[in-house]
Amino acid sequence: MSQYTIGIDVGGTKIAYGLFDADKKLMATRRQRSNPDLEPAPFFDGIAAEIQDLCGEHGIAADALRGVGIGMPSFILFEEGYIVKTVNLTRLKDFPARAYLAEKLGGNVRVMLDNDAHTAALAEHRHGAGRGFSHMLYCPVSTGVSSGIVIDNRLFHGSYGWSGESGHMLLTPGEGVECGCGNRGCIMSWCSGSMIVKHIQNWIADGAETLMTKLAGSPEAITTLHISEAFAKGDGMAIRAVEQMTDTMAVWLYNLYVILNINCYVFGGGLLNMDVPLLEQTREKFDRYNRDERPVYFKTAELGEDFGIIGAAELVD
Question: What is the pTM of this model?
């Protein structure tokens, strides 16, 4: 009897695996680094090998595996499990990932593939901060920004499967730094972890001074950690960076609220670990735009680092 599920969370820097039993209890985890230089076939060959090794380690036969769910930072045709493109792993594109991986696993294992913001939304809605809300937006703020949309307790995929790529909505078309989506001026290009560092490097190149250069050793070595350190010391550029991030995020979230009228936002992602008032400033600015007194909830994700594998495993239900 099939009773085990594997959830896989693919990110720009890591791949996390989780093995779950029939009661959805997490039995085991493992992690490996993502290799951005791999073409799709060898990339998924590696995933197939890890799945088989994980099953072998725990004595799980192929017919005991209910299925494999995978969340990826990709534009995915959900019904086909086809990867259109991946902004942070650019070689992963134009590939029938579901069919390929299913064949690698013997052809009898169910494989489900979805965008990682969608899988995180599933996890937080069913098991985390979104419990009890019929409608919810999961909003990761990390290397990139995005959203997973739950409407009437169901994940909303849209016409092709990549609903919620709200970080690529255009705010200032043609202005600012270029995002991995190919545009300049999208939401993500102004406030994501990777892009805010590019803005800081541009400001330094234009002659502005900041403690971050000394803290990091060089402009090229600056990370969001240095933004936090400099912000705590009152550094003007760090304060400017946080203001830019929260200005942009407030517009992003208010526009989502106006479009969808969903009042529960659940936030996750690495930028929440910055020691700066990111959500506090964003909330204050959001409230300036929102002139209605009905409640809008800003909540932080509850599932910790396992949210990605939990949500991926939920795809198999």
Answer: 0.90
